[in-house]
Amino acid sequence: MEKEIILETIDLSAAYGDNWVVKSVNLAVPYNKVIAIMGPSGCGKSTFIRCLNRMHELLPGTKIKGQVLLEGENIFDLPPTTVRRRIGMVFQRPNPFPTMSIYDNVLAGYILRGEKLSRAERDEIVETSLKKAFLWDEVKDSLHKRGTFLSGGQQQRLCIARALAMRPDILLLDEPTSALDPKAQAMIEELITQLKETVSIVLVTHNRAQAARVSDYTAFMYLGEIVEIGPTPQMFTAPKDPRTEEYLTGKFG
Amino acid sequence: MDGDKAFRIGLNLTAFLFILFVGITFLSLIIASGPSIKAFGWKFVISTEWDPTAGKFGALPFLTGTLLTSFLALLMSTPLAFSLALFLGIYSRKGLRFAYILDYAVDLLAGIPSVIYGLWALFFLVPVVRWMEIKMNITPFGVGIFTASLVLAIMIIPYISSISKEMVAMVPQDLLEAGMALGATDWEVVKNIIVPYCLSGFYAGILLGLGRALGETMAVTMVIGNFNGMPKDLFSPGNTMASVIANEFAEAVGDLHLSSLIQIGLWLFLVNVIVNLVGQVIVRKVSIRR
To answer: Which of A121, A157, B107, B253 is 20 to 30 A removed from A176 (C-alpha atoms)?
Structure first.
């Protein structure tokens, strides 16, 4: 069992000031699987996923208790920059850098850090990352145009390519399709199921159907706690907790 | 007449009125400079001799003084103003209380009358510069081009920083998070995301500061030394276009003197127009790239 888990939270709690929005969460992320965290708005799922690569620290006044182990190492003992390189993140709204070309956007992680790469390395990273993100064919002739000229769905795939370019072990997706149209959403969902061959994925969504379509495991989060977690088919067909069943049948959220 | 129509006419009228103001100012400057333009032609801006009693009027020393003090001031205040803008823009969005106090203080700096800057410079900056000059073993005037540039540099900081700060505060949180999520440090995010995003605002700030520095009169007049010859070095006394006008127009000897002073005003106006045009081209170039 130990070898199959890449990331694990142990009694992880998080608060803004004195308001504890994540309460003692224990969650294990297996290698090369998609784990979906679903729950109604305000249940703490976004805060939780931000703790996994220490992005919560950007907001002043956040507190945290518990541990997050990345292959056995507590991420709070590692430099945040290292943690974030190994655990990439894609946000709700596509956010390519408007001052950079598509090419530079893919390489943004290296550019920001001032890392020098050879021309061949750069070309290689850009091509493989864009191919992995299903975007290569659409942009290969306009790599040096600005990323902001792309459609919303393309921009989001560019952001995924940008995260993949850093060759992370884990990809955190924070409601990656909620700002996109259904077609773009379908494409990204297809992409997620392909990506798990190379990275482990944590997907936060308030879209139950999306969790059902793309994930191997699903966790239901409510009022800051994980109510139930299990293999996705089982969660959707035979939930054990009555609250999960109420959520899945649309009684709330 | 309905409100919409009255509103539109009102706005159009105001717009027209402002164009009229600029036009009339320009025209009346040209007309009043007439005698001196006729007498000296282009020699007015290339001659370095300004001797009202001998009837010789050449404005090159003042043009030099204005450009020298303004660009020197810009050189000194820009790094400070940008650091200030980054500090204010970044920390006010994090809700740091000190940033609000500092922001208010900088705004206050912009509201201080220039005569007070002049007085302060006279009693504080001049002795400091004089002390420096003694240490450097050059004639210790205290007053001069360098002192004027110093006081100008301080005066234009709020102008440069306020626009720049607004720009920094407007950088979408999304982009900062995207940068941090890629493993960049605070400094890397500032350097590679915030600064490129704010470039057009930074240029606009510089432009505003430069415009202010070119035309500033009172404070400069009080500490520049009011010497009518070409400044020999940065520490020598001099005059700017604005300061020579302020100094001499009350005691102008004869029509040609007065008309020459007005022609200096005309040139100052033109310098300002040119700086603004060039600046706008730069700002536009930079912002189109976005």
So the answer is: A121
User: Are the C-beta atoms of residues A13 and A66 closer than 8 Å to each other?
Assistant: yes
Give the domain extent around B47. 3-288
ipTM metric = 0.89
In a mutational test of the B interface, the residue from A93, A95, A158 whose CB has the highest number of chain B CBs within 10 Å is A95
Q: Where do we find the tokens 């940033």?
A: B99
Number of domains in chain B: 1
Give the up-direction half-sphere exposure of residue B101: CA atoms within 13 A in the CB hemisphere: 3
The answer to whether B176 contacts A98, with C-beta atoms less than 8 Å apart, is no
| Residues linked to residue A8 through DSSP beta bridges, in sequence order | A28, A69
Closest CA of chain A from B10, distance in Å: 39
CATH assignment at residue B249 = 1.10.3720.10
Q: List the single residue in A with minimal CA-CA distance to B175.
A: A95
pLDDT tens column, A81-108: 999 999 999 999 999 999 899 999 999 9
Domains of chain A, CATH where assigned: 2-248 (3.40.50.300)
Q: How many of the other CB atoms lie within 10 Å of CB of B251?
A: 8
Q: Do A81 and B290 touch (CB under 8 A)?
A: no
DSSP codes, A95-141: ---TTSBHHHHHTHHHHHTT----HHHHHHHHHHHHHHTT-HHHHTT
Confidence of residue B288 (pLDDT cuts 50, 70, 90): low
